[in-house]
Amino acid sequence: MGMGDFSNPFDLFESLFEGMGGMGGMGGRASRNRAVDGQDEYYNLVLTFKEAVFGVEKEIEITRLESCGTCDGSGAKPGTKPSKCSTCGGQGQVVTSARTPLGVFQQVMTCSSCGGSGETFSPCNTCSGDGRVRRTKRISLKVPAGVDSGSRLRVRSEGNAGRRGGSPGDLFVIIEVRTDPVLKNAMTPTSCTRARCHT
């Protein structure tokens, strides 16, 4: 069985990893235009002791990345077409070489010019090519009874938008319960002397 023509280093790497689901973190043609999931968003919510004990419905305001309506999340200026990336030649990766005592070591890395897509385009004027814009949104949140400081509530798909069709992240609401002054006084140890009692 011949080794074939591997003058293109990408062909060699793809041949070695064929049948293993692509090249994974090392790149490969299968990684082009891959979707990137959005990051999770975090929000700190302060509750009174009563709200934490009995539960409450709160309306919170968050700022997150949402899909750009001008370019529909593509990042490209409407009416333009993408072109082959001149840095990687449309491969989506670049090969770096380093000479070591054991020989020449080659590493495949994602192309920084096109982000691994193999294409470049005129950026959208609204989102500057990111495909997402930062917007503020109000969300109604039901806080269950019995939460405590440090509790985390998860609201699915209310985090930052993904890129190239990636799933949005989640919103995590971190609870902080204010100390109730009446309860605090009731639980404060009291010491007494023959003259008076004091805390």
Automatic annotation (TrEMBL):
<feature type="zinc finger region" description="CR-type">
    <location>
        <begin position="55"/>
        <end position="136"/>
    </location>
</feature>
<dbReference type="GO" id="GO:0009535">
    <property type="term" value="C:chloroplast thylakoid membrane"/>
</dbReference>
<dbReference type="Pfam" id="PF00684">
    <property type="entry name" value="DnaJ_CXXCXGXG"/>
</dbReference>
<dbReference type="GO" id="GO:0042026">
    <property type="term" value="P:protein refolding"/>
</dbReference>
<dbReference type="GO" id="GO:0031072">
    <property type="term" value="F:heat shock protein binding"/>
</dbReference>
<dbReference type="InterPro" id="IPR002939">
    <property type="entry name" value="DnaJ_C"/>
</dbReference>
<feature type="domain" description="CR-type">
    <location>
        <begin position="55"/>
        <end position="136"/>
    </location>
</feature>
<keyword id="KW-0143">Chaperone</keyword>
<dbReference type="Pfam" id="PF01556">
    <property type="entry name" value="DnaJ_C"/>
</dbReference>
<dbReference type="GO" id="GO:0008270">
    <property type="term" value="F:zinc ion binding"/>
</dbReference>
<keyword id="KW-0677">Repeat</keyword>
<protein>
    <recommendedName>
        <fullName>CR-type domain-containing protein</fullName>
    </recommendedName>
</protein>
<dbReference type="GO" id="GO:0051082">
    <property type="term" value="F:unfolded protein binding"/>
</dbReference>
<dbReference type="InterPro" id="IPR008971">
    <property type="entry name" value="HSP40/DnaJ_pept-bd"/>
</dbReference>
<keyword id="KW-0863">Zinc-finger</keyword>
<dbReference type="InterPro" id="IPR001305">
    <property type="entry name" value="HSP_DnaJ_Cys-rich_dom"/>
</dbReference>
<dbReference type="InterPro" id="IPR036410">
    <property type="entry name" value="HSP_DnaJ_Cys-rich_dom_sf"/>
</dbReference>
<keyword id="KW-0862">Zinc</keyword>
<keyword id="KW-0479">Metal-binding</keyword>
